[in-house]
Design a protein that fits this description.
- With 381 residues, the chain is an alpha/beta fold.
- It has two domains: 27-44 and 281-375, Aspartate Aminotransferase, domain 1 (Alpha-Beta Complex), CATH 3.90.1150.10; 59-278, 3-Layer(aba) Sandwich (Aspartate Aminotransferase, domain 2).
- Helix content is 42%, strand content 14%.
- It contains 14 helices and twelve strands.
- It has helices at 4-17, 46-58, 77-90, 101-111, 127-135, 148-157, 179-189, 211-214, 243-252, 254-257, 264-278, 282-297, 319-331, 361-375, and strands at residues 32-33, 94-98, 118-122, 139-143, 162-167, 192-196, 223-227, 237-241, 311-315, 334-335, 337-339, 350-354.
- The strands form three sheets. A seven-stranded mixed β-sheet has the order 2-8-7-6-5-3-4, with helices on both faces. Strands 9-12-11 form a three-stranded antiparallel β-sheet, with helices on one face. A two-stranded parallel ribbon has the order 1-10.
- α4 runs parallel beside α5.
- The termini are far apart.
Amino acid sequence: MKAIDTILEERLEQRSVKGLLRSLTLGDPARIDFASNDYLGLARSKTLFDDIRDDVDRLGDKTNGSSGSRLLTGNSPLIEEVEAMLSTIFISEATLIFNSGYTANLSVLSSLPQRGDTIIYDEYAHACMKDGARLSMAKRLSFRHNDLDDLEAKLKVAQGHIFIAVESIYSMDGDECPLREIVALARAFGAKIILDEAHSTGTMGAGGAGLAVSLGLEKQIAVRIYTFGKAMGIHGACVAGSTQLKRYLINFARPFIYTTAPDPHSIIAIRCSFKYLRNHLYLQDQLKEIIGAFVENTQGCSGRTRSTSAIQGFICPGNENVKEAARKLQDQGFDVRAILSPTVPAGAERLRICLHTYNSMQEVSAIAQQLTLLSSGHGDQ
């Protein structure tokens, strides 16, 4: 009988041989950030940091942690107040706060669909949506990325209650889902839409309310998931929807029921972050200008994904090839990361470029020039 460490080492070695071994690294602060999800610069905002600290200091209850799950001792007037605030921003009857977007998606996809139902998800949907779907007893079907014809074909063979799981902005390609058309298909087939607004939270819509609200479609979406660890610069997430949806998740969503509630500092951070964005909405326009400049400067680059969001992808097939391309950019002072298979399909390995309000036009021009050289095979020149 092999020892557990021997078994683990063998599995790690198999991954290493394939060039897929992951490890934790520390970023070089001297490099220009084109890797993080801090699109609006809120994670590094000194003003927001001070606002959160001052609000924590004003909190009468000097509690470090929530002390338990929401259903036991972890609920508080503060968290209910912030949920009410979020409901106003997201134009929903109710919201329910979660510790992360991952657990929010896991909760929704594992508890709403039941045996005999069908989940149809975009093939590029995030791992947490797929993991949640696996935990449900429902039938699972994927459709080709943003392919409405393939989605319709899957809807025609779906059974029971039908759930369509999509993202507003996809995390690897940075492209937007055709939400209006998906809403029309959902209506035609009586399906319910589960929309992950992770990468549109903060960057789109009034007050950072995301894609659905910006298009006036929020009433057509059964479930919306918002994540605060990206453009909002903090941590946590929420599910927005009807009052009945909130009551259902409180009773059936295991990742909610059996998880310690967020601490008061985290809840105050959510409140402060959205207040800060409300007073600095120009950041959305500033980000659009950066994106526009980047897209214009990389028109001649081969392999660029069709994205008008803060996430820009450059296909560089092969794990070793894309790691080498990332290294060349890092040597030029840019913090850019390679996205390897199986995170993306084999042959679709890419450089993932994230744009931010704090990237200067000079920095955008400089990295675009390097990407142009790489795409032409002159990356070291």
